[in-house]
Design brief:
alpha/beta
Amino acid sequence: MAAVRPLDPGPARRPGEVLLDVRDLVVIRGTRRILEVDSLEIRAGQTLAVVGPNGAGKSTLLLSLARLVRPDAGVVRFAGRPLGPGDDLAYRRRIGLVLPAPLLLSASVFDNVAAGLRFRRVDAPEIRRRVELWLERLSIGHLRDRHAGGLSTGEAQRVSLARALVLDPELLLLDEPFASLDPGTRAELTDDFERLRRGTATTCVIVTHDLNEAARLGDRMAVLLEGRIRQCDVPARVMAAPADDEVAAFTGAPSGIRGRVVASRGGLVVVDTGAAPGTDLPARAEALLDAAQQAAMGDDGDAAPDR
């Protein structure tokens, strides 16, 4: 087996520092650019939730971050160092990947979770310790000796998560990890994942089309529409203040109303939204301001005191 070139990212990133930095990333299929990300920063210890409709390019972005899809242009920096083709295997050893459908070996649950550690030639006692730890954390310790072929979908996805987390990855990439589960199992596994995520320093990127799931799990939310990131911010701001009409339509949040200020007085503003074309807007605006001012006056005609 060829030697793996070490990937030395320098000092470990402190929480909040940029771990993965994506610039001018482009993926082309045929003659169409299916992904075009100008800038994206993923910070150490945080979870970035990537949301968007089907076909927006979410999975392509995740597989590009995993170095399983080769971008046609752009730079990805891991802990400040640009990743080149010769770094792929060493980089993948520092990350974990969970796909929508768990792809398990035809072996026991224990052997599935231990596979990556054995590949990295971890000694047997340490493998046993780490595997049993994560089996318990994901509530599948009782399935230790069960063959993977006899697991339910929810159990299999728990094994898939354990197999990724047992490697103690610096970056965990999850592509719709709960999408194939029934609602009850999905809610239960989401609860468990949120608890585990809060208890580790692992940086996560989770792709989902479920806005509630993204808002719950993500420290930041990136909205991907037609291959472009249209907004990236904390979930509350994305939901309350969408960057444009398309983001508002996807999130279901109200977008801003465009117009021009016609008149203002005493902190009151009249805005023309174009709903009443052809009217004498300045005169109508002044009348509205007069009426508002009179409504704010006391019964004796004096202005209401400032509060």
